[in-house]
Amino acid sequence: MPEQAHPAVRLRAISKRFGAVQANREVSFDIAEGSVHGLVGENGAGKSTLMAILYGYYQADAGAIEVDGQPVQIKDSQQAIALGIGMVHQHFMLVDTLTCLENIMLGAEGGFLLKPSKARVRARLDALMAETGLHVRLDAVAGDLPVGELQRLEILKALYRGARILILDEPTAVLTPQETDQLFVTLRRLQELGTTLILITHKLREVMNLCGAVTVMRAGQVVETRPIAAWSEAALAESMVGRKVTLGRPAGLETRAGDVRLKATGLNLKHANGVAALKDVSLALKAGEIVGVAGVSGNGQSELLEVLSGLRAPEGGRLELGGQAFTPHAWLDTAQARPLRLAHVPEDRHAVGLVMSFPAWESAVLGYQNLPKYRRGAAMDHAAMKAATREMQQRFDVRPRDENLGSSKFSGGNQQKLILAREIGEQPIVLLVGQPTRGVDIGAIEFIHNQLRALRDAGCAVLLVSSELDEILALADRVVVMNCGRITGELAIEDCDERRLGLLMAAQEERAAA
Ligand SMILES: Nc1ncnc2c1ncn2[C@@H]1O[C@H](COP(=O)(O)OP(=O)(O)OP(=O)(O)O)[C@@H](O)[C@H]1O
């Protein structure tokens, strides 16, 4: 490859501190023009902070940035956009009630009077879609669209505003495997068209597949930047975490399922629009087993967790738990669930997992605040809650170890570890867990998997919903497949492999479409 005159982005000695936390410390590396550059590292390593500085959302305390060989000051995201830098965040920045076209026009360049007509914007977008293969229904209301399409909308919006350097923060964390494949095709196409891509991800296979070079960060610093040929998945994992990491299913894992702990029969639930979300779902969870729920996201897995955890009552069916039976008119509620030792790690940590505006210690006892250990007479014992939070942070390696820091100030993976610490900590007898390692780094995945296995070995019945087949294969004792709101297949773990499950899920889809 010919030597480039200058990189698309050059970061020199970037430092940024938040209170006691040094989020970035003298970070330096180059991103070659037209490359896909991976940025990996443990939760809290400082990746998002660094990219927020490049996108003008934060100002660095020290250091310099060059774009296309020119020193630049990026004071806000308008300036970043003017320099051709775009960013697709983990949580999309869209207005749900507007159409895709309106979302793109909103805040785009040009004052009120200079705004181009809808017809002209549409014509440019049509051309851009044809060129990049990023297909979006421009007249659809954003709130009605699946996640994969919203992400395409975000990318299209950035390109429409002239992005030549595109930052993607964990773009596949919320996608189904099919949507991920589609995204990869698009990213390769964008690269062919000359776009420089910066990819933050915890999925090392993606890094190996897509990136030309990778920078590893740890504790705010760059560990090293190397071309992809000089990395392997194992070397990346070790460089990120500072030790060897073993994922996958340990040999000799035996199932010793005991009594039924939770039994659901004939669950039926409808979405607000009348479409069935759960159809006649029956399921029993036994002590000492992990039941994996596989399936393409959006086929009833989330609703199943909501109904079983008491967040939502079904229209039909019955639930037996802890010697009690619940029917739709007197369904389990979340306040009853805790004393019955049913714990729930929700899929969406922002919506139901933590209260973002609370300090960590309040989020860490959420739902458990009435336990005797957190009370002193009629009053809440804040000191006991804070001490318990410190202990959880220690045990689950939540960084920083600060019980008073706002919940929103923790990096995504550390928020997830705090929820797991809270839910697993009280030794539940039934655990419902959705996407336990979404956004979590590879060292923490290993830790969380070991915690879930230990719970199972202690006799807990675990229901695991995960969009990662690898995760289900590493943890489950048996696997049920969900499609269109039904349980359509069940396999013992000995009979499962990725290909067989994939085929089963695909076959079910075809049958449903027929
Ligand atoms: N606004 C803020 N106030 C205080 N601390 C912050 C703030 N934003 C980030 N931090 C801290 O800075 C550190 C780096 O966080 P950052 O989000 O950049 O990590 P990350 O590598 O992107 O992690 P993850 O993979 O979990 O998303 C963390 O310790 C985090 O708690």
TrEMBL record:
Name this polypeptide is given: ABC transporter ATP-binding protein
GO molecular function: ATP binding
Keyword set includes Iron: no
CDD domains recorded: ABC_Carb_Monos_I, ABC_Carb_Monos_II
Domain ABC transporter: 9-244, 262-509
Lineage: Bacteria, Pseudomonadati, Pseudomonadota, Betaproteobacteria, Burkholderiales
Pfam families recorded: ABC_tran
InterPro entries hit by this protein: AAA+_ATPase, ABC_carbohydrate_import_ATPase, ABC_transporter-like_ATP-bd, ABC_transporter-like_CS, P-loop_NTPase
Protein species of origin: Pelomonas cellulosilytica
Keyword Cell membrane set for record: yes
PROSITE patterns: ABC_TRANSPORTER_1, ABC_TRANSPORTER_2
Keywords assigned: ATP-binding, Cell membrane, Membrane, Nucleotide-binding, Repeat, Sugar transport, Transport
